[in-house]
Amino acid sequence: MNRRLQSAPPISPVHQALDRYGYAVVPAVLDGRWVERLRRAFDQAPVQSGGTQHIELTDETPEVESWRALEHHPVLKAAAEHLLSQPYCLGGLHGRNPLPGFGQQGLHSDCLRSPYDCILITAIWMLDDFTPENGATRVVPESHRIARPLARDFSQPLAKHRDEKIIVEQAGSLLMFNGYLWHSGRRNDSNGPRRAVQMGLRRGTPADSPANFFVYRRTSPDRP
Questions:
Q1: Residue ranges with strand state E in 58-217
Q2: Could you give the CA distance from residue 142 to residue 19 in angstroms, rounded to a whole number?
């Protein structure tokens, strides 16, 4: 008896972009009310060294449940299941707001190379419009496929890569990228904030040591 072969389900454009380019931008994943709830944590947050507000999540963080709910957003979960498979877990969650005149970084990746195609997804939830003027994140498309370390010259804050792309999108959008991807924040040359929630989902369980994965630590001032 002939059996009809079943074709694999089509891969979504978001997952195709993650596979090919190492990153994907999904507009309008958060509505205006969710964005406003997330912004409240920045209202009283002090400016730390380097001219940046950092939000370290605690039970007292304003609207903390709105922050924690991001881990379960269907767009992010679908990307994690596509790139990481099971099991995976939260690898970090914090807020960041480089104030005017601050935020410039050198290109870097967020995790060490491993036998896997992806061990970490970094997610940046935009709480303000990301523009060229306010230092929107830059990425180097397809650099997640490059096994050699990033050249030291490109890790200097003012160095530019010929293939870099600045991610410009409206508040409420989501930037996701493979942890191997070369990327960085840029200097905020506007007169306003560039608030964002930054999150990592990593392969494994909370019992697995993240020391085997991460190049940059949460305590570093140079986050994307």
A1: 88-98, 120-126, 138-139, 165-166, 174-178, 183-184, 196-203
A2: 9
Query: How confident is the model over 113-152, as pLDDT tens digits?
Result: 888 899 999 999 999 999 999 999 999 999 999 999 899 9
pLDDT at residue number 4: 53
Residue 163: its H or E element:
none
What pairs with residue 200 in β-bridges?
92, 122
**Superfamily of domain 25-205 in the CATH hierarchy:** q2cbj1_9rhob like domain (2.60.120.620)
With a cut of 50, list the residues of the chain below it in pLDDT: 1-2, 215-224
Q: Domain spans of the chain?
A: 25-205
Q: Rounded to whole angstroms, what are the CA distances from 177 to 36, 158, 167, 191?
A: 24, 22, 12, 28
